[in-house]
Amino acid sequence: MPKVLASIQVVGTTSFSGGTWRWGWANQSLPPNVTKAMEKVREFGQAGNIPELTEVELPDDEYLGWGMTAVASKLLKAKGAYRCPDDNGFVYVIYSSIRFAANDVETANGRKRVKCNDHGTGFATYVCEHLVSNPAQGWFSQEPDEEHKWPDAWCSACDAFFQEQGEWNEKNESKIKIQLLCHYCYESLRSQARFTETED
């Protein structure tokens, strides 16, 4: 059976024994990095005075988990959702990126592997520090393709240095700070981006 790799967020969990739904942001047993985005859903509920989005637990039925997942998916612009069976219920997740695991190996084209605290081992990618701190802005890079799945990327401020020379060289590369990321982090950040293709 083919394996896939995905960047996910846990929306919430259901309990057969308790008959409840619990939001991911309220579940202390989950790692913070897989529930962080759910805070945006909670804030939306607070702003709109929607108790279903702000209460830690709700009485569960066969539809509630998918309903709350649909709301989170819409607000966070997810690409899809999945329900994972558990011993005592289900775990509902949304994903911002997904692909066959085999493709990453086949198309990495000699990229070195790096260790990531959040994702384990992944392929090396490079982006400017401004995109790491604020990914929801214009990304300047070549268009991703099968040969270059994670092209080096930089922001509009760094692109001003690129435009001065018309290329990256010793004069302008010293003016920007590049960060090394695994390709899972890259895909998660880039899913929030506004894209601007360029040549380098």
Structural commentary:
By secondary structure, the chain is α+β, with helices and mostly antiparallel strands. It has two domains: 4-99, no CATH class; 107-197, no CATH class. It contains seven helices and ten strands. Strands 3-2-1-5-4 form a five-stranded antiparallel sheet. A three-stranded antiparallel sheet has the order 6-7-9. A hairpin with a 3-residue loop joins strand 6 and strand 7. The radius of gyration is 20 Å and the shape is elongated. The two termini are 39 Å apart.
Average pLDDT figure: 87
- Give the quaternary arrangement of the chains: single chain
Q: Into which percent range does the helicity of residues fall? A: 25-40%
Tell me the Rg in angstroms. Answer: 20 Å
Structural class: alpha+beta
Provide a concise account of the structure shown.
By secondary structure, this protein is of the alpha+beta class. The chain is built from seven helices and ten strands.
SSE diagram, text form:
Elements: E1 4-15, E2 20-23, H1 38-47, E3 57-59, H2 64-76, E4 80-86, E5 89-100, H3 101-106, E6 113-116, E7 120-128, H4 129-133, E8 138-141, H5 156-165, H6 170-173, E9 178-182, H7 183-190, E10 194-197
Parallel strand pairs: 8-10
Antiparallel strand pairs: 1-2, 1-5, 2-3, 4-5, 6-7, 7-9
Give descriptors for this structure.
elongated; 5-stranded antiparallel β-sheet; alpha+beta; 3-stranded antiparallel β-sheet; 200 residues; 10 strands
